[in-house]
Amino acid sequence: MVVVLHTVSLARYLERLEIVRSSEDYRLAVMQNDWWGESLSAMLSRILVDELSQRMPHSTVLASSGAVIASPDATLALNVQRLDEDAAGRVVLKAQASVEFKGCDQPIVRSFRFIDVPQAPGTSGEVAGISAMVGQLADEIVPMLRSGPAVR
């Protein structure tokens, strides 16, 4: 099966190089000296392609933004609505995923909410929590991809 991941769509407040600490209490707190190594959307796309490829070794998972193209059996779209700490200091990932299979009219759509309690303070704890939750997200997306008619 060939899966193509569209570019990950981010909530506007996440579209910045600085790592967002929190969006609680109607305020945006960013880490002034801690930046992502690339755009968050591009990084999440790259990591999700890798995570899904590891979990589906007999499939080919590609990013739509890459140079390699193929006719997809399934197309995955992802909206990230929240990715920061809540008032209690827990890291929250809130997202929506849609999987559309070739030849099917109706996509499979799911919403996700993951919470992680950082094991270390500051940026390293938040980023480790985000990493763990992206892995959990990949775990939850795989059954969506395996449920379609293109899966043999």
Model description:
The protein has 152 residues and is of the alpha/beta class. The chain is built from two helices and eight strands; from the N terminus they run E-E-E-E-H-E-E-E-E-H. It is 27% helix and 36% strand. Strands 1, 2, 5, 6, 7 and 8 form a six-stranded mixed β-sheet that branches.
Write a compact overview of the structure shown.
The protein is of the alpha/beta class.
List keywords for this structure.
alpha/beta; 152 residues; Rossmann fold; 27% helix
The outline comes out as elongated
CATH architecture classification: 3-Layer(aba) Sandwich
Supply the number of helical segments: 2
CATH topology: Rossmann fold
Largest sheet: 6 strands, mixed
| Rg (C-alpha, Å) | 16 Å
Total strand segments: 8
Taking the alpha carbons of the first and last residues, their distance comes to 8 Å
Low-confidence stretches: none
Determine the strand fraction and express it as a percent band.
35-45%
Estimated helix fraction: 25-40%
CATH superfamily: ABC-type transport auxiliary lipoprotein component
What is the fold's blueprint, element by element?
Layout: E1 2-5, E2 9-10, E3 18-22, E4 29-35, H1 40-55, E5 60-63, E6 74-85, E7 91-101, E8 108-116, H2 122-146
Helix pairs in contact: 1-2
